[in-house]
Amino acid sequence: MQLLEFEKPIAEMERELERLRAKSASQNIDMSAEIAIMEGKLAETRSDIYRNLTPWQRVQIARHSQRPFMLDYVANVFTDFFELHGDRHVGDDHAMPGGFARIGGRRVVVIGHQKGRNTKENLKRNFGSAHPEGYRKALRLMKIAEKFGLPIIAMIDTPGAFPGIGAEERNIAEAIAYNLREMMLLRVPIIAVVLGEGGSGGALGIGVADRVIMMENAYYSVISPEGCAAILWKHRKHAPEAAEAMKLVAPDLKQLGLIDDVIAEPLGGAHHDHQEAAAAFGECVQRHLAELSALTTEDLLAKRYQKFRAFGEWQA
Fold this sequence. Notes:
With about 325 residues, this protein is an alpha/beta fold. The chain folds into 2 domains: about 5-50; about 60-310, 2-enoyl-CoA Hydratase, Chain A, domain 1. Helices cover about 50% and strands about 15% of the residues. The protein contains 14 helices and 8 strands.
């Protein structure tokens, strides 16, 4: 498993613990006392590190290659997933899969960004950076959801929309802007969950929702910490300072009122236990879905409007 810089003390203690166990087994020596002490130190070190993560460390966890992605949650939380393809204008975008599914027996439409874990998958999924046709496909599926009265679950995990020449030629800005307007008017419940990276307009393109939820170690921001550092400090090495200043992680955004809930992850991050992360995801989404489904359409739209109108308020 990919080891992050701040996890090295944990890895060293794990190796020492394995050495003690191997020595005890190979030499038939009772080292239970030493092993117990090391296990205690390891548990304490894990707790100290993971309970006191900095924003930059959470960003690193959000980008972990073994973290569960959109289709992992679809497989572990949803049933009867039937993928739909194409935007009916240009083509299909594998960075933005979506389709019909069920969660807790309730029919929904799911959409989201999908990354890859190796070179082949990342080329297919474009590293989770969708093209204009991805956002147009997402909106097509959301319109289908509205037609049949189905709630929408959007899963955000992207460093940003694809910034290439082709995407600009096919009007990526218009595709995202159109989604922002149309999602505000959809007459069905919308829940958006930031799984890992929530980067800029690429995230917002499917992020206008009645409830915006974040995984504990996800981040959601207008620009990456590296991009911010390059602009303000003229060097990417200041990314940790930028991450701290930007207030881009879930606890800060919840305190600011920009998101509605935070889903707890297994100690150390969702990549340590996909099943536990999926169970927490499913419980949280179903709870919010039940609350939203109890509202009338008029109340739903009014509350959505009020939610986004309140952003940006400040007190002197």
